[in-house]
Amino acid sequence: MSVADTLRHLHRPAVLGLAVALALGLAGCAGLPDQRLANEALKNGNVALAQQNYQQLADLGYADAQVGLADIWVESGDPAQLAKAEATYRAAAATSPRAAARLGKLLATKPNSTEAERHEAEGLLKQSFASGEGGVLMSLALLYIQYPQSFPHVNAQQKISEWRAAGYPEAGLAQIMLYRVQNTYDQNLGEVEKICKAALDTSDLCYVELATVYQKQNRAEDQAALVKRLQDNFAAGRVQPARVDATARVIANPALGTPDPKVAQGLLESATATYPGAYISLAQLQYDYPDLGDTDQLLGYIDKGHDADPSRAELLLGKIYYEGKVVLPNAFKSEEHLKKALPDQVSAYYYLGQIYRRGYMGMVDPQKAVDNLLTAARRGQNSADFALAQLYFNGRGTVPNPVNAYVFSQLAKTQALTTPQPRQEVLDLAKTVEEQLPPQLKPQAQQLLQQEVASRGVSPAPGISAITPQGDDVAPEADAPQQTAVGEGEDL
Q1: How far from 313 is each of 35, 41, 252, CA to CA, in Å?
Q2: Contact criterion met (CB below 8 Å) for 16 and 98
């Protein structure tokens, strides 16, 4: 599971009910909204039903329902919804410890947060932790890891070690998150396994982590035993269907080891009854492994899961029309779907950037290409830096910029070298750009590279570009290149 996936899990709330008496009272009154029903619906991926019940209770003034509604807005990833959620949490924070904890978590992961907001987040999270609110240490650890300049007197590793020594269960998961952020996960697979074996009964997120370890180490027997335990606990209601979905996606991911699409398919099919979002994972699985079904079935899965996970559904549709492997390529339809996947899906920025960079809609649009690719790169999309380096080196539709080409080719090279089998074309481009960079421009290029590396510590607002293409004239291309399946984006 990527850091991006880990951050998404931090956003996913563990919604609690109202007081038992209130819940029982509402459940017994026909026609009234039911918070228990809303909680169960959200847990099972039925966002529409959960939102309907939360909204009705929120309108009646119930703070817990207002928090539940705000949780759904946070999960959407939409900036306007996030602003509404923050306002709702703030309004309820004075009387609701849960709302205060949620506000702290939201501020800890807020893009372009201010110094004041980061310190407010720390205060809220420490207060929530002291008062016994669960699930806050991961967010507090993320705050220290992501913004070391805001907390110069806090050593994230030392803090996590103190939490682990004190016996807090979340601390082990925070340690795993630190390994991912520091890119030392593979060097600590044994420690990850030890942490998650001990926490498996209390944190079903560990199914995903253990599946990742076993996949990377090609431990088929241990993976099979883990899958059996997952299936048994899911059938008994002790594991969320979202975890079944996430574990299946690890097992199907060839980048982590030898994939087993049949096992992944079985897990996803078992989750669809209570978690419609699993249909999107089934569609992605079938897209990656066409022998599992036909195109009509793939599109049917997307249709069934669309309402439960619209951003992933739109991303997959955009990718399908972009690559043209199962339908005729259509850049205009791809753009339409990809825009609907924003801002939640980072890969949507990448594919949009490639459409504009390659002129698939009739002409190159370098500014849109840079805006989208830079956002994707700064939010962790693997191939975006390489695409930016190509744009600035080749100068297609704009003036070549050797300084920017150097910056992004070096970033792409650094990222490539962290993988077991680096893409040779990435290494070759970085070498060529460096060799051709005029000596008098190298100090400037190295300074910009350092600035860009530093900027990666904070996620920018979508579409904000610090580096812009040179040249005002964009040359129209009468013959846009024929699209081919490039396979450069992240897995959904």
Answers
A1: 28, 20, 18
A2: yes
**What does the alpha-carbon distance between residue 230 and residue 236 come to, in Å, rounded to a whole number?**
10
Locate 379 and state its tokens.
């939010």
At residue 190's C-alpha, the angle toward residues 184 and 196, to 5°, is 100
**Quick one: average pLDDT of 335-355?**
94
265-273 own/partner pairs: CB under 8 Å, 24+ apart: 265/292, 267/227, 267/230, 267/231, 268/244, 270/231, 270/234, 270/244, 271/234, 271/241, 271/244, 271/245, 272/304, 272/305
Instruction: Please answer whether residues 353 and 377 qualify as being in contact, where contact means their C-beta atoms are separated by less than 8 angstroms.
Output: no
Separation CA 319–CA 284 (nearest Å): 10
Instruction: Write the Ramachandran bin of 132: left for phi over 0, alpha for psi from -120 to 50, otherwise beta.
Output: left
pLDDT at 76: 64
> Are the C-beta atoms of 230 and 200 separated by less than 8 Å?
no
- All residues at 6 or more sequence positions from 187 whose CB lies less than 8 Å from its CB, including other chains: 179
Contact (Cβ atoms closer than 8 angstroms) between residue 351 and residue 318: yes
The half-sphere exposure of 74 on its side-chain side, counting CA atoms within 13 A, is: 32
Question: Can you list the positions of beta strands (E) in 344-472?
Answer: none
Asked if 212 and 256 touch (Cβ cutoff 8 Å), the reply is yes
**Omega of the bond leading into 276 within 30 degrees of 0 (cis):** no
**CA distances in angstroms from 434 to 430, 456, 466, listed in the order given:** 6, 22, 22
Weakest-pLDDT range from 101-115, 151-165, 299-313, 345-359: 101-115
pLDDT tens profile 164-206: 999 988 899 999 999 988 888 999 999 999 999 999 988 899 9
Q: Read off the DSSP letter of residue 490.
A: P
Which runs of E-coded beta strand occur in 192-237? none
DSSP letters spanning 446-488: HHHHHHHHHHTTSPPPTT--SS--B-S---B-SSPPPP-----
Under the banding of pLDDT at 50, 70 and 90, the label for residue 405 is very high
Q: Confidence class of residue 54 from pLDDT cuts 50, 70 and 90? A: low
5-14, 55-64, 140-149, 347-356: which range is least confident on average? 5-14
The encoded tokens of residue 27 equal 């459940």
Helix 205-216 × helix 220-235 angle, to 10°: 160
Q: Which of 421, 361, 360, 427 is nearest to 389 (CA)?
A: 427
Backbone angles phi and psi of 476, in degrees to 5: -70, 145
Report d(CA 487, CA 361) in Å as an integer: 19
